[in-house]
Amino acid sequence: MRCVLHTSFALCLILTLTSQTISQERDKPNSGAAYEATWDSPEFGDISELRGKSKVYVYCEDFKIRQVIVDELKKYPRLQIVSSTDEAEFLVNFTYKYLTTYSTGIISSVKTNIHSGEFIVSIAGRVDKDNKVHQRIVWSSQNERKTTFGKNPAQKGAQKFIEAFKKVPDDIETKGTTSKRVIEPTNDPLAADALVGTWKIVASNDQGPVKEFTFTVARQGARLVGEMKSNDGTATIEQIVSDGRSFSILVSEKNGKDTLTATLTGNVILDTLKGSITLNDGTHIIPLAFIGTRAN
Q: From CA 209, how far away is CA 72, in angstroms rounded?
């Protein structure tokens, strides 16, 4: 499968749909559910197709840059950030590039760091005769740039998207009637402590379970800290962010000279965790689903 528009390979894999749902949705393009996308022939629409939609999943390979986008989008109350593609009505994908240039003069040499990024918003398109759901790009802000003292391109892209999204009506049209969308509250002050404890996690791909591990989360003052263990060793939990009953966890592990990272995003439902893992070995991005249960 070939990706176009220089988007990350992970985006080609990130959306899922069961064959039963594909059959049910065949005659309903742009329904807003999460789907497996084929990038051989993407479709293009416009931002008006986000009418009545509010639940957005943000994907970026870099955890900190993703958080910049999430923080910016949260400033606009119509948007609801969700932790998995199963909940999303549309997807934001941001790819990031970094370049250093040098300019040498008589008095001094100047080093300029140039960051650039591509901000793409997409929904599910039509289902073709082969039961493949085509990715439908409805908005993009390409080649956002930042020099050493400039604004972060991820932040710039998010701000431009919000300005465009403000012009899209906040309602749903259904057979001549218009109904207002109700955005469900997500903030729960007790949710962060719902992660505290030891969890047994099973990660799977389309073929079945591929990895088992445990992670332990404890409260340390105002922060949540922890570690992840498997038969292969122990990894460090670098950051835990919990917003309502959703969470995002960044894990890193040294492998020789390389640093491997994994980002877990999901929801706490009583004594169960459910969500997705994005593994990054510096060369490949591997998305997996996971489910977790309390071990204590």
A: 35
| 9-180 and 192-294: identical CATH topology | no
Q: What is the 8-class DSSP label of residue 61?
A: S
Residue 173 burial (CB < 10 Å; 0-12/13-18/19+)? exposed
The topology (CATH level 3) of 9-180 is Double Stranded RNA Binding Domain (3.30.160)
CA–CA dist 285, 72 (Å, integer)? 25
CATH dotted code for 192-294: 2.40.128.20
Tokens of 48: 């008006």
Residue 21 to residues 27, 58, 89, 133, 205: CA-CA distances in angstroms? 11, 23, 15, 11, 19
Residue 10 token pair: 């992970």
Instruction: Tell me the sheet residues that pair with 127.
Output: 133
Q: E-assigned strands of 14-132?
A: 37-44, 55-59, 80-81, 90-104, 109-127
Q: Where are the domains of the chain?
A: 9-180, 192-294
In whole angstroms, what is the distance from residue 185 CA to residue 36 CA? 28
Q: With contact defined as beta carbons under 8 Å apart, do 53 and 33 qualify?
A: no
Instruction: Determine the Cα–Cα distance for residues 216 and 208; give it in Å rounded to an integer.
Output: 24
Mean pLDDT by 10 residues, the chain (296 residues): 31 28 36 45 84 89 88 89 85 71 36 62 77 80 52 82 88 48 42 80 83 85 82 80 74 76 80 82 75 85
Identify the pLDDT of residue 153. 79
